[in-house]
Structures are given as C-alpha cells and as structure tokens.
C-alpha cells in the first residue's frame, strides 16, 4: 500500500561542532601557563581533533594525558572519563575516573560513570553499590533529587547485557523513590528490556502508590499488552475513558494504546467521542488508514466535508489528503486547487502532482512540478521539494535516467542542497553504485562536517557494502559522539563492530539499540550476529520479530540469505 499522507515523523537533533573544544580550552587555559603541572592544552586540543575525526581511541588517550597534566581540574577529568567510556576503553576510563575522584567531591554524575564502568566490567556488586547510593543516598544523607535519573542512565548504558541489567533492576525496585515520574520511568525501562516479570512488579507497586493517576493506568495497560494479556489491557483502557479526570490528551493517549494493540479502528472511535478539530480529524483518518479501512476514512471525509464552507487552508488540505487516500482522486484535485493560500497552498500543489501521477496523467504531473520549480513566488524549500518529488515519481515508474535527471536539475538550481544530495546518495546505494553514493555523502560533509545523518549513513554504507570497516567505524564514531543515545546510530555502531569481527561487542550494542527502538533492520542485525555466535534459537526469535515488523526489509532478506535460516510461513492475512 502506498504511504499514507498522515504518517508521523521522527524527531532528530544536531550537536555543535566546537562545543566540546570550547569547554576543553576553557578548562585547561588556567593550567597552560603552569610548567610545573605540564601543558594540558596541546593534548586537549589533540583529543578534541581526534574526537572530531571519529578516532575515539585516540581521543581517549589524549584526553587522559590532558587530565594527567592538569591534576585537580574536575571538568577536564570528567570529560576524559566520558570520552573513554564512549570509546569503550575501560582502562583509560578507570584512570580518568580516579583523577576525577581526586579533584572534587563525588557527585551523581561521577557515580553514574562509576556504575557504568562497573556494568561494563560486569562487576555486579560494584554497580549495585553505586546505583543504590544514587537511589537512596549515602548513610545519613538524603539522595540527590535527580539521583534516580542518573541510575537509570547507567542501567540504560548497560542494557546490552539484558540479564545483568535485569538482575540489577530487580534489586533496585525497593529503592525507587516515591515520585510518580520515577516509577513511570522505571516501568517503561523494564518494558524496553522485555522483562515482563519486572514490569509486572513495578506496575503493581505504582498502581498501589498512585491509584488515581491516569498515567499509571496507561502504564498498566501497556504492561498488560506487552505481557500478551490484551483483554485485561482493554479493560483498563475502557475504565480510563470513563475517568472523571479525563482530558483530550488522555483520550489521545488511550487511542495510542488501542493502536499499539493493533485495534486502529477502536483508536479512531475513541477520538471521535469528543469535540472535533483538525488534530482529531487527522488522527482518526491516520488510524483508519493504518487499518486500511477506506470506508471508515470515507465517513471521516464526509463528516469533515459538511463543515468546510469557509476557505480554511488547513482543512481543505486535509480534505484533499483524505480524498486522495480513499481514491476519490478527482475530488482530491478539487480540494487541493481550492486551498486559498499560506504554506498549505504549496503542499497542496505538490500533492496534486502526486494525484495526477496516480491517475496515470504523468505528463500533467511532471508539468505541474516543473511549474512549481520555476515559480519565483514559491519558497526555496517548496521548489526543492518539487525536484525531490519528481525524482520519486520517476523512480516509481522505473525510469532511472529520468530520476537521475531530476536530481541533476535540482542540484543545478540548489547547489549542494543537503536534502537533494542525501536522496541522490540513497538512489546510488539502491543501484549498488557505492562510489557515487559516497561522493554525495562526502559533499554534504564538506559543507557541514558534523551532519550526523550523513556521517551515520556514509559509515553504515561503507560497513554494509564495502570492506572499509575501519573508515566506517571512524565515521560512525563521530555520529555517536554527537548523539550517543540514537538507536539508529547505535545500530550502525554495532553493525560495523560485527563486520570487524568483534561479535560479542557488536551484540551488546545491537541489543541496546533494539531496546530503544523496535525496528525490523535492527532486529535482523541482532538475529544475524546471534546466529553467527551459535545462539540459533534466540536468533530465530529475532528473525521472526523482524519479519513481523516488516517482512520486506532488505537487511532481513540479506540476513536470511546469508544464514540460511528457515522460518515458519507467515500466517495468512484475514480476508477483507
């Protein structure tokens, strides 16, 4: 089924290239003039440049040298510790941590590093001691108000070993503070670990402590769903909808839970209960689209149409999108043409080209896009998107030369545009032309050396499609230094470790990525590494998880072909 115009987008973030260097220089400036202590400036700068180059092992070495040259500098010692942990260099992390301890009083951040390092060493006793202090405080002292957050971060860092992490989490349940947010966070984390036993314990406690909190009931419903107790989860959700503390946001949250249960139609019905606005109509249509319930989407369309006399741009755009989805293409064109102005007008013009293409009126579709590309009144972003859409439609038609021509003309109009270069790089990768894909990714990086998406994409491409594994590792390391908690980047990091033959380390990272994001490609990567390590029963479970999420995933298909695993046939889809 073609992508719905109601799909949700993921959020991202960028890191400043020079922030770390500025912090390092500010920290060591006071020591640079003191020959008795050595000169930390040079190694700190070398460490920062190594970090920017993705050479984490070198960065860890240089920063430790800088910290040793400036004893008593807590900021520099902390940075040396963090970079060594990021580089998975436990020996240097321990040395830097010793300098950090000697330079200042113990803080929650320091104890977080202590616990993380202990988890890396699989020293359960030491890890528990630090986590317990973070949660409860030292004898005679109250815990830091954010101590539980630092403890949770350390557990997350160790989640690549779910057995060890699960044991520690079980021992810490009695130490969770009487704070709703803390209990909710630990409950969600237990679900990420797929430890239904721990999740059940935590949820039972939080329900007893906060019986009237809607957020607690939502956590309970989620825990029951994860445990396969779907009927019980539905009862909790039904009771929530009758709660006198109900609010629009609660209704939307309940709808999301029904959707997670696979009942997208019920999710739409929940939202239909209250007052309607653009958001509610959009979500109802999106849920029904997920259920492939075109008659249901049609009813939303008819309801929305009755109140559309005023020339509201957002509503008319939405009506066009819904008409497009239910294949009332002529009506969709009318709605798009009637959008009176504002940014919605440009979106409508783009969508109308898509509709014309669906109607097999390709010449009109491409002519409309050319008009938009040449429209001086349109914003640059809209004109750029017209080239991207033109390329996409040519790809759907199988006209590869025309697709390439669209990118060429787009880049002539918008030289070195990141979105166009990124899309063209993916096109080259899809065509197995890795040198050209690399060239486009590197053009992006020549303009912005810290573009995390390009760093990760190029690194993953080199790891997956070439044997330039060390180079791939450096690129992905730069990305992970900027966004250490990104599931996609952790997955890339684990994958390049696997390609380097560091299978146990790879499995740790890939498991951690999967706890953060249940994704078909990540599951396929976990499955392949497990298979190579001889853990074939668990590998089959991950292969089936991946296939359940997306049976057409390219990484899944390649992993099945490489391993030769035989999976049971997929259950037949129910008749429409």
Automatic annotation (TrEMBL):
**What's the short name of a Pfam family annotated to this entry?**
TPR_16
Protein name as catalogued: Tetratricopeptide repeat protein
Keyword line: Signal, TPR repeat
- Listed PROSITE patterns: TPR
UniProt keyword annotation of Membrane present? no
InterPro entries according to UniProt? TMTC_O-mannosyltransferase, TPR-like_helical_dom_sf, TPR_rpt
Superkingdom field: Bacteria
The organism encoding this protein is Lysobacter hankyongensis
Ranges occupied by TPR repeats: 520-553
Q: Which residues form the signal peptide?
A: 1-32
Does the keyword Magnesium belong to this entry? no
């Amino acid at each position: 089924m073609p992508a719905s115009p109601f799909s949700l987008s993921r959020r991202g973030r960028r890191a400043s290239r020079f922030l770390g260097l500025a912090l390092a220089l500010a920290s060591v400036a006071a020591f640079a003039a003191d020959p008795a202590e050595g000169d930390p400036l040079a190694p700190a700068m070398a460490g920062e440049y190594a970090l920017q180059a993705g050479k984490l092992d070198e960065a860890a070495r240089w920063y430790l040298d800088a910290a040793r040259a400036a004893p008593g500098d807590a900021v520099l010692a902390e940075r040396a510790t963090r970079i060594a942990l990021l580089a998975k260099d436990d020996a240097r992390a321990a040395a830097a941590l010793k300098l950090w301890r000697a330079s200042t009083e113990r803080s929650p951040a320091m104890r977080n590093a202590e616990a993380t390092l202990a988890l890396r060493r699989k020293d359960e006793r030491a890890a528990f001691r630090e986590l317990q202090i973070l949660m409860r405080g030292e004898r005679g002292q109250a815990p830091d108000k954010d101590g539980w957050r630092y403890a949770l971060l350390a557990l997350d860092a160790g989640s690549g070993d779910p057995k060890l992490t699960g044991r520690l989490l079980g021992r810490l349940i009695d130490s969770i503070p009487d704070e709703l947010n803390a209990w909710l966070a630990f409950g969600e984390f237990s679900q990420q670990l797929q430890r239904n036993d721990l999740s059940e314990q935590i949820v039972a406690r939080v329900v007893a402590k906060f019986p009237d909190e809607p957020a607690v009931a939502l956590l309970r419903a989620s825990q029951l769903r994860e445990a396969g107790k779907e009927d019980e989860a539905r009862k909790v959700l039904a009771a929530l909808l009758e709660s006198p503390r109900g609010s629009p946001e609660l209704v939307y949250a309940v709808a999301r839970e029904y959707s997670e249960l696979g009942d997208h139609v019920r999710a739409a019905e929940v939202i239909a209960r209250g007052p309607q606005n653009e958001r509610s109509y959009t979500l109802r249509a999106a849920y029904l689209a997920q259920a492939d319930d075109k008659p249901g989407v049609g009813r939303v369309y008819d309801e929305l149409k009755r109140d559309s006399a005023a020339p509201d741009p957002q509503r008319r755009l939405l009506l066009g999108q819904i008409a497009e989805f239910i294949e009332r293409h002529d009506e969709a064109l009318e709605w798009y043409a009637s959008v009176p102005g504002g940014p919605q007008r440009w979106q409508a013009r783009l969508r109308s080209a898509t509709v014309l293409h669906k109607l097999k009126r390709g010449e009109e579709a491409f002519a409309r896009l050319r008009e938009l590309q040449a429209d001086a009144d349109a914003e640059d972003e809209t004109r750029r998107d017209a080239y991207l859409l033109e390329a996409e439609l040519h790809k759907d038609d199988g006209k590869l030369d025309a697709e390439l021509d669209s990118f060429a003309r787009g880049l002539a109009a918008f030289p070195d545009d990141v979105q166009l270069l990124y899309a063209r790089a993916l096109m080259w990768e899809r065509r197995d032309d890795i040198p050209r894909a690399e060239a486009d990714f590197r053009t992006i990086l020549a303009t912005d050396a810290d573009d995390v998406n390009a760093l990760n994409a190029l690194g993953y491409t080199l790891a997956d499609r070439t044997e330039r594994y060390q180079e791939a590792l450096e690129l992905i390391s730069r990305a992970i230094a900027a966004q250490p908690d990104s599931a996609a980047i952790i997955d890339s990091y684990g994958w390049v470790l696997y390609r380097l033959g560091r299978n146990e380390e790879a499995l740790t990272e890939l498991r951690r990525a999967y706890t953060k994001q249940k994704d078909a490609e990540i599951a396929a990567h976990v499955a392949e590494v497990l298979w190579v390590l001889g853990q074939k029963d668990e590998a089959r479970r991950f292969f089936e998880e991946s296939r359940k999420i997306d049976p057409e995933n390219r990484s899944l298909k390649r992993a099945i072909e490489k391993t030769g695993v035989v999976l049971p046939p997929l259950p037949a889809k129910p008749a429409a």
